[in-house]
Design brief:
The complex is a heterodimer. Chain A is an alpha+beta fold. Chain A has four domains: 59 residues, no CATH class; 184 residues, no CATH class; 306 residues, no CATH class; 185 residues, no CATH class. Chain A contains 26 helices and 21 strands. In chain A, strands 1, 2, 3, 4, 5, 6, 7, 8, 9 and 10 form a ten-stranded mixed β-sheet that branches. Chain A has a six-stranded mixed beta barrel with strand order 13-14-19-16-18-17. In chain A, helix 5 crosses helix 13 and helix 16 packs antiparallel against helix 25. Chain A starts with a helix and ends with a helix. By secondary structure, chain B is of the alpha+beta class. Chain B contains four helices and three strands; from the N terminus they run H-E-H-H-E-E-H. The chains are: A alpha+beta, B alpha+beta. At the A-B interface, helix 2 and helix 3 of A face helix 2 and helix 3 of B.
């Protein structure tokens, strides 16, 4: 803290520092000894900054000679402000352009910052967020596996590094309490989850230890959202069975701020109640849990990883069947959940900072030109007794007023832009709950305003100081070269910054185009998809239900065909299994493949091209031979020399030994911009599942068949819930939403930067030409032709442009590396983008210089020479 | 010297009425005297000390090597008295208007 005080002391006038610095530090030491604490620290820091400011203000005022009644500082500040308003009102054109330019820059910053604020700072409202980790299991060939329940229990019992651990399994369940049956997101969780994430019930309570034991009566804790929407905010709901398929009674309602990421389930059941289920407690093949743990304070993630390694090797020895070679992966919750959003948002924030820089450069030039025009006014004021410091304060007041006005307009802009911005925000990134202009955002905006004022107010002030006030009267209109260097610097900077932004947005747009260009492996138009979870009855009944439902759906004349599969494209990998050829591979060495159960006609309905062999038919039943269709990636991996059809493969969780009957093209399972994974399709008739995505190929607009399709399903089973009904094209669009969001925004900012910099550059050139009018007149009087004069101007502009382009390309080459993770099929130093942007900007800058150059050529020598 | 003193200035002068003190003692004394209504942090304290020294209401009075002591000048003492008289006048007027209770005799 002492060092902080010493650093802050540098803010003080030197005379003061020399006289009182040491004594002040000594006094602070005494006080710190007695009152040590963050309160005192904050107060002292604020007080030191404020005092330094007041001292400087007092010095500028020339302090003790000009004592007036009242607080002199306040009176003069007020005077300054009033005067600033008057002078700005006198030049409405300048003021309007400056305010609009600043509003664009500050508004963009405010908008992006409010998203940053909502997502990164408030997106995960857990009290011990920085100490929360996710833990996965991992095999050499399969890095991300869910955790087995017994493994979780062993971790929890054996570790020394966690305050506590919690497990949850995201799932869905039918809810019949409303007008229509619906499928709600639920989670099977350990009771420890709630205290770990700081969740408290607003009604009722959370699970008791007895309720977490197998055989206990079914109970549920529901989210505030579920309570308010589905349960109509019933205050008496605790103790009632409200209509869950498992008959659970509600024992508690969580607070409104709680949300569990990922998935945001609405209903929580105790996972421990399933501990009697042999499937749930199987160490090898299990439904899989996600595990969250809170590290003890002071324990590093490195130590946690070491500890988990020890525990996992102990388990591998004790249970070689299931755990051999299995390790644990520990990742900070913030990295795992916010990592992607963090990359995107910091880059966008960087981009808007660049936009603001250009806006400031533009306003700086405007202010510079205006200050030059006002030299005579300043000179007069000095002559009649204004002090130099007073003039500086005057200019400061004007800059501040401008930037605050720009900030106010920017806030309005941000306010209008936020709803569409939020609507565009990809649903795959968590945390976007309430984006609003709260106090944090307002403070940020204020800071940006002050920074902007400092940035664009500096140049005219420097010029004023350098020009010297006394000479002003005599040479008010002369000195054509004054500020020329500053203007050239502004010119170059604008071009360079615009290059960086345009290159960045160019790279992202090219990546987006490349991602959209990817063949998803199926035909997405005229395809309706919906999720159905069937409950009740055994596996045979599930299959029968889906079969009947598909038959009924197909009766609609607008339907060409209908089918279903467990794992539709772009939904991530649902189920995986190890596989082998001969049955000799030790379990930990077996490669894994995605596994998909499909109804007959699924691949035809999706229009997935068949490469070899045949597709599933209705004749492939539970009674016929066990078969599989593999995708090209899997076929190439296992039979690199072809001839997959007719071979046998053992897919451990897919029914054992299977005969390959066909090879189909790869389908993008994870996302358009992810590589295709190996995948095996098994007939649902031979391995029935209770949850599938029904896909309907239509000859009409798929959205128009939504109601008919749901009705057809309900005609089979009246209370059947369906969810996620959407045309497949929407699903396709959602899979590139993150890419679109970043590319679109960076594109907008790039365009904004381009426009602002072209406007700025053309303004600078126009001003230069005006200043050199007399020189051009002389040149032409001496015999220079108009073409030569305009070439002179254009040459100067192009020289500066070339420097700007070179600097910008160099900076871009360094900075685009930050974009690497967001690029797809484009290198961060993609030559095409760099060249295209350089050409574009040079052309734009040349155009911007052309108008002033022509004007220079039209200078009439006689008028120019008379011009004063 | 007819302008009223600012409260913080007045409290600092008051704190030095009886004997010279160093910076931290002044802070504590001001807090005690004002019953915690005036709290000074180091920046404000030294900003005001600098001004009072400049106006010759205070002077430096040696120290223990680490810290410096400050004491009132004759002028400072006069200013405190004048301010006290002014405040007494204010109090009298307030009493006359029954905005303050009369002191118990």
């Amino acid at each position: 803290m002492r060092r902080v005080v010493a650093i802050l002391l540098r803010l003080f006038p030197r005379r003061f520092r020399r006289e009182f610095g040491a004594d002040l530090c000594a006094t602070f030491d005494d006080r710190w000894q007695e009152r040590r604490g963050w309160r005192l620290a904050v107060r002292t820091i604020a007080d030191l900054i404020g005092s330094a400011f007041l001292l400087w203000a007092g010095d500028l005022r020339g302090s003790r000679q000009t004592k007036s009644t009242g607080d002199p500082l306040m009176t003069t500040s007020l005077q300054d402000a009033k005067f600033a308003v008057r002078t700005l009102a006198k030049t409405p054109g300048f003021t309007a352009v400056a305010v609009i330019t600043l509003a664009l820059g500050i508004g963009a910053n405010t908008a992006i910052y409010s998203v940053v604020n909502a997502v990164l700072f408030k997106g995960l409202p857990y009290p011990n967020l920085s100490r929360l980790v996710f833990i996965n299991e991992s095999l050499p060939k399969s890095p991300y596996l869910n955790v087995a329940w017994p493994d979780f229990l062993d971790w929890r019992a054996q570790n020394q590094v966690f305050v506590d651990m919690a497990a949850f399994q995201p799932n869905s369940m039918q809810y019949h309490g409303g007008d229509e049956p619906e499928s709600v997101r639920c989670g099977w969780v350990t009771g420890s989850l709630f205290p770990l994430l700081g969740a408290k019930p607003t009604l009722g309570r959370i699970f008791s230890p007895e309720e977490e034991k197998p055989g206990a009566a079914a109970v549920a804790v529901v989210s505030y959202r579920f309570w308010r929407n589905q349960l109509k905010g019933d205050p008496q709901v605790v103790g009632k069975p409200v209509g869950f398929a498992n008959g659970a009674i509600v024992i508690g309602v969580l607070g409104p701020e709680f949300q569990l990421q990922p998935g945001e389930p609405d209903v929580f059941f105790p996972a421990g109640a399933r501990a009697g289920d042999p499937d749930f407690t199987n160490r090898a093949n299990h439904p899989g849990l996600m595990v969250i743990a809170e590290m003890r304070p002071g324990v590093s993630i490195g130590r946690v990883r070491a500890e988990m390694k020890t525990i996992m090797s102990r388990l591998a020895q004790a249970f070689p069947e299931s755990n051999r070679d299995e390790t644990a992966r520990v990742a900070l919750m913030t990295d795992r959940l916010l990592g992607d959003a963090r990359t995107d948002l910091w880059i966008l924030l960087g981009a808007v900072a660049f936009v603001l820089l250009i806006a400031c450069a533009n306003v700086a030039h405007l202010a510079l030109a205006r200050a030059a025009g006002r030299q005579r006014e300043f000179a007069v004021r000095v002559a009649i007794g204004a002090s130099r410091s007073r003039l500086i304060r005057q200019m400061l007041a004007e800059s501040l007023l401008l930037s605050l006005a720009g900030g106010g307009a920017g806030l309005l802009m941000a306010y209008w832009c936020l709803p569409p911005l939020v609507a565009m925000y990809p649903a795959t990134l968590p945390g976007l709950k309430d984006v609003r202009l709260d106090s944090g955002v307002l403070l940020f905006t204020l800071g940006v305003c002050l920074l902007a004022a400092a940035l664009f107010g500096l140049a005219p002030m420097l010029q004023l100081l350098r020009a010297g006030m006394t000479t002003g009267l005599k040479e008010a209109a002369a000195s054509p070269g004054s500020g020329r260097r500053i203007r050239s610097a502004l010119f170059v900077a604008e071009i360079a910054v615009a290059i960086v932004l345009t290159v960045g947005s160019g790279l992202l747009l090219r990546s987006l185009a490349a991602a959209l260009d990817v063949n998803p492996g199926f035909q997405a138009d005229h395809l309706l998809a919906l999720d159905v979870v069937h409950s009740g009855g055994g596996p045979a009944r599930h299959f029968q239900f889906f079969q009947e439902a598909l038959d009924r759906i197909a009766l609609d004349p607008g339907v060409e065909s209908a089918s279903a599969a467990m794992c539709p494209p772009l939904s991530g990998t649902c189920w995986t299994s190890p596989y082998e050829l001969e049955g000799q591979t030790p379990p930990s060495q077996r490669p894994w493949t995605a596994l998909n159960m499909a109804m007959p006609g699924y691949l035809q309905t999706m229009r997935v091209p068949l490469m070899e062999g045949r597709l599933f038919t209705a004749a492939d039943t539970g009674g016929s031979g066990r078969i599989v269709i593999v995708n090209q990636t899997l076929a190439r991996l296992v039979w690199p020399h072809g001839g997959a059809v007719g071979k046998h493969i053992r897919i451990v969780y897919g029914g054992g030994d299977l005969e390959v009957v066909g090879v189909v093209a790869d389908v993008k399972q994870d996302g358009l911009d992810s590589p295709a994974v190996s995948e095996a399709y098994v007939p649902a008739a031979q391995m029935p599942v209770n949850f599938m995505t029904i896909v309907v190929r239509t000859s009409v607009d798929p959205a128009s068949l939504t109601r008919g399709t749901v009705a057809a399903i309900r005609s089979v089973e009246k209370s059947q819930a369906v969810s996620h009904i959407a045309p497949m094209t929407k699903v396709l669009a959602a899979s590139v939403a993150r890419r679109k969001f970043a590319a679109f925004l960076l594109g907008v900012f790039g365009a904004l930067a381009l426009v602002l910099s072209v406007v700025g550059v053309s303004g600078i050139m126009a001003y230069t030409v005006t200043q050199r009018t007399r020189e051009f007149g002389i040149r032409m009087a001496m015999g220079a032709r108009p073409g030569q004069v305009s070439r002179l101007v254009l040459g100067q502009g192009l020289r500066l442009t070339a420097i700007g382009v070179a600097l910008g390309l160099a900076a871009a080459a360094g900075l685009t590396r930050l974009l690497t993770s967001m690029l797809f099929h484009v290198k961060s130093r993609d030559p095409l983008t760099f060249v295209a942007v350089a050409v574009l900007l040079t052309a734009a800058a040349a155009m911007a210089c052309l108008v002033p150059a022509r004007r220079a050529a039209r200078v009439d020598p006689m008028t120019a020479l008379r011009w004063d | 010297m007819t302008d009223p003193l600012k409260p913080a200035d007045f409290h600092i002068l008051l704190a030095l009425l009886d004997h010279e003190r160093h910076g931290y003692e002044i802070m504590k004394e001001v807090e005690r005297e004002s019953r915690n209504t005036v709290r000074l942090e180091v920046g404000t304290l030294y900003r005001i000390l600098a001004r009072l020294l400049d106006d010759s209401l205070l002077q430096e009075a040696g120290g223990d090597g680490r810290r410096r002591n400050y004491r009132l000048t004759a002028m400072g003492r006069r200013v405190v008295k004048a301010e006290a008289a002014r405040l007494a006048g204010v109090v009298d007027r307030l009493r006359a208007r029954k905005l303050l209770p009369h002191a118990e005799a």
